Amino acid sequence: MAQTAGFSIFGNTGRHQADGKSSKFNLKTLLDFSTLQPRVQNHLKNVYTCLLGATLCATLGVFLSLNGWLNYPRLAVFASMATSIWLFSIDFNARTQMKCFGLMSATALFTGIYLSPLINLAINVDPQLIMTAFLLTTVIFVCFSLSALLTKNRTYLYLGGLLGTGTSFMLLLSLMNLFGRSQLIFNINLYLGLALACGYILYDTQLIVERANNGDMNYVKHALLLFIDMVDLFVRILIILLKNSQNKEKKSNNR
Asked: Membrane-crossing residues (predicted)?
């Protein structure tokens, strides 16, 4: 595993002083980003600000769809693909940055629209599942992002090959399950996808830092990468919570 710069999170903690008392928790040490260049730190602020904006746009898309104003989830899938491809084809500069931000916002809005059937299903089963999935997604995303940012050596970049292989294996399982309809394959795909989503958060975060070090300051595209990771994580967590809730309901009905 990678050695992390911030995992002296207790500063001198974990060691007992001569008087037998342990030192206090040091939050500043946990959030010490001094290993990152100032321009990279500023770039990351822009990235996470855009990520917050994309999350709000996706939430708006879910709201609009659930209220019947833009309830076209299948069309939204193709629309999100089109806007994201358009975004990645544009050269990022001072003149195009607002256009790029608009395309990212549109992609996030369409993403919320095509997620609305899953959100609606979860609301019908148990409305609390939505907030639980969102909170779990946020906690996991923040923890893995901090782990990637506080690592001095960009060792998580070596996950790229493993993540690519895992994604190809998931695609193969999905194609197999189109014909077999196996619950076992579905579960393997679901939990493997959850692990890969966490891995992609580590990988993409360090990839963004590395690209920023090399002069790539396209914070809109970088934010979209993290947004895709976050949505993938949220969807899988929500599906797992739905499965568990439905299994509990079946067991209670069989008693």
From this structure: 47-66, 72-89, 101-123, 129-149, 156-178, 184-203, 223-242
CA nearest neighbour of 151 among 8, 51, 42:
8
Question: Is the distance from CB of 133 to CB of 123 less than 8 angstroms?
Answer: no
Task: Name residue 16's beta-bridge partners.
Answer: 22
CA distance 50 to 232: 18
What is the rounded CA–CA span in Å between residue 238 and residue 130? 7
Residue 10 within any structural domain of the chain: no
Tokens of 241: 């919570």
What domain range includes position 213? Answer: 37-242
What DSSP designation does 17 have? -
Please report, in tens digits, the pLDDT of each residue of the chain (255 residues total). 343 333 333 334 343 344 444 445 455 555 666 677 888 889 999 999 999 999 999 999 999 999 888 888 889 999 999 999 999 999 888 899 999 999 999 999 999 999 999 999 999 988 899 999 999 999 999 999 998 888 877 788 888 889 999 999 989 988 888 887 788 888 899 999 999 999 999 999 999 999 998 988 999 999 999 999 999 999 999 999 999 887 777 777 666
Structure tokens of 15?
């060691």
Number of domains in the chain: 1
Residue 1 within a domain: no
**249: in domain:** no
Is residue 13 included in any domain, yes or no?
Answer: no
Consecutive H or E run containing 127: none
| Tally of CA atoms within 13 A in the half-sphere of 126 that contains its CB | 16
